[in-house]
Design goal:
Number of strands: 13
Strand content: 15-25%
Structural class: alpha/beta
Radius of gyration: 22 Å
Helix content: 25-40%
Number of helices: 11
Distance between the termini: 35 Å
Length: 334
């Protein structure tokens, strides 16, 4: 981003117009959880649009990313003093409901306490703060859910993310909360997303029948689309102070886990008759909402949304590296 500034050269005998490039300062963005599924996509999105991006990780920190324990208040304070971001996109979280049930204290530390610390520091430095939340703040009994609908989470994960929302908005009134549904995208391992993990079931083929939930309604959403929305929010917030509060973004295709797996099988021309629909919620795991469909008109009215990518094409982008024949992408797309 640059604009031309006209200058005049007043040296004797040399009065002429000169063009000098005046660069608008690039956006400095701090992405927490930049080693995770969503964080990687957000980091790449800002980088691809010419922003200066600082990414943090912890257990999976790698070259070019900063290692930071977000539950350590002093470490967070030092991180922000050193990096001086214009915007923080807080992707880091414990997002697995069953893990949160078993390791509640550690999850609360990350999902709530770290959010509170980041929000306080963002407010103190005038930094725009974007907190990623979840559709699991709703009980799923009366969809679709707008931004102003009253949350009622069914599990500890949903409660932890709701508390994180409240901490973000309490300590940083100019913050944005972006609620999203189940996510998928380019994964390092199939189990990194509840969506791509179903590929293991699909590949079992005729060897073994497999039951999959056909009760809970989901809206699998590509992290690339979420990342684009994050960038748009950060860019608009730079010029528009009304960009604050709660927003929803979601893909529009409604599918159960069974239907997701069948769609995967069809995308790769694989059999799906070994997949058996299960119409009762499985016992022994954290309760999930029946249908927590998000109503996303606030983003759309502000022209801050993106058109979600069709599930079939998006999921093939993610899964082809995990096919037996790594040449699959070339043979299908060329």
């Amino acid at each position: 981003m640059s604009q031309s500034e006209v200058k005049i050269d007043f040296r004797p005998g040399c009065v002429q117009l000169l063009q000098e490039e005046m660069h608008v300062p690039t956006l400095r963005v701090l992405v927490t959880g930049a080693t995770g599924l969503l964080g990687r996509a957000v980091y790449r999105e800002f980088q691809n649009h010419g922003c200066f991006v600082i990414g943090t990780g912890y257990k999976r920190a790698r070259p070019r990313l900063l290692r930071c324990d977000l539950t350590d208040e002093d470490a967070v304070r030092e991180l922000l003093m050193d990096s001086k971001p214009d915007a923080i996109v807080h992707c880091a979280a414990e997002r697995r409901p069953d893990v949160v049930e078993r390791h509640t204290e550690a999850a609360m530390n990350l999902n709530v306490h770290a959010t509170s610390t980041l929000a306080k520091e963002a407010a103190a430095s005038g930094t725009f703060f974007l907190y990623i939340s979840t559709d699991y703040v709703f009980d799923g009994r009366n969809p679709p859910y707008g931004e102003d609908d009253v949350p009622n989470p069914l599990n500890v994960y949903g409660r932890s993310k709701l508390e994180g929302e409240r901490e973000a908005l309490r300590h940083c009134p100019g913050a944005v909360v972006l609620r999203v549904p189940v996510l998928f995208g380019e994964v390092e391992s199939l189990t990194e997303s509840a969506v791509t993990s179903l590929w293991l079931k699909v590949q079992e083929g005729a060897a073994e029948s497999c039951t999959l939930d056909h009760c809970l309604q989901r809206f699998p959403t590509d992290v690339r689309d979420v990342a684009a929305v994050c960038r748009k929010l950060c860019e608009r917030a730079r010029q528009d102070a009304s960009i604050r509060g709660i927003f929803h973004f979601s893909a529009k295709e409604q599918m159960t886990k069974y239907e997701i797996a069948v769609a995967m099988a069809q995308a790769f021309n694989l059999p799906s008759n070994h997949l058996i629909p299960l119409t009762e919620q499985p016992a022994g795991s954290a309760l999930r909402p029946l249908n927590s469909r998000l109503e996303c008109s606030r983003l759309e009215l502000l022209n801050l949304s993106v058109e979600p990518q069709p599930f079939t094409s998006a999921i093939t982008d993610c899964l082809w590296p995990f096919t037996p024949d790594k040449r699959w992408r070339q043979t299908v797309f060329h």
